[in-house]
Design brief:
The protein folds into two domains: 1-85, no CATH class; 96-171, no CATH class. It is an alpha+beta fold and 171 residues long. The chain is built from nine helices and five strands, in the order ααβαββαααβαβαα. Helix content is 54%, strand content 12%. The protein has a three-stranded antiparallel β-sheet. The protein has helices at residues 2-6, 12-22, 38-48, 72-80, 87-93, 98-105, 118-123, 132-149, 151-167; strands at residues 28-31, 52-57, 63-69, 110-111, 127-128. The chain starts with a helix and ends with a helix.
């Protein structure tokens, strides 16, 4: 945990993503979109003992990133199913609750909502309309586990959320 907290390479968001892997709240994460810090990020993942691979997408806006798995089997699954992976599979592997994934996938009515606290800022995305309250509660429960596992990362995240709110005039 201390190595993750002390990292000067990874952003606070990336640290939270990796912490969620260690807490078994997600099975896949991504770091360093764009690979601007590729070598340093990979060295950090090696120190943490996490399996990784470089992934990319071609097209009008090609991009690359480092994909991280909770274990090698998950990473292998993501690689083997890369072109067939459904939004449902991806959402669950990336740690989102089922109703959240259903809303994102358009299978149930979605709700786009701004973050209301550090937990939803760091963990959430597109909600489902009918299950918004339960999804926020889910992310808050996970956040309590983050706070317990790493008060230092929770504090860094709260500072980041506070800066974002100040930048956009929210108090």
């Amino acid at each position: 945990m201390r190595a993750l907290e002390a990292s000067t390479v990874l952003s606070v968001g990336e640290k939270i993503e990796l912490l969620l892997l260690f807490l078994h709240k997600k099975w896949a994460a991504e770091v360093d979109v764009g690979l601007s810090r590729k070598d340093a990020s990979i060295a950090e993942l090696e120190r943490l003992g996490l399996p990784w691979r470089i992934d990319s997408r071609n097209g009008a806006s090609p991009e690359s990133w480092v994909q991280v798995g909770a274990n090698q089997a998950v990473l292998d699954y993501l690689k083997e199913r890369r072109d067939q992976l459904s939004e449902m599979e991806a959402g669950m592997l990336y740690g989102f609750p089922l109703t959240h994934v259903l809303g994102f996938s358009g299978l149930i009515h979605e709700k786009v909502a701004p973050p209301v606290d550090t937990a939803t800022y760091m963990l959430a995305g597109v909600y489902s309309h009918n299950f918004y309250t339960q999804e926020v509660a889910h992310f808050r429960q996970i956040w309590r586990e983050v706070e317990k596992a790493s008060p230092a990362l929770a504090k860094q995240s709260e500072e980041r959320y506070g800066k974002m709110r100040a930048k956009f005039g929210k108090t």
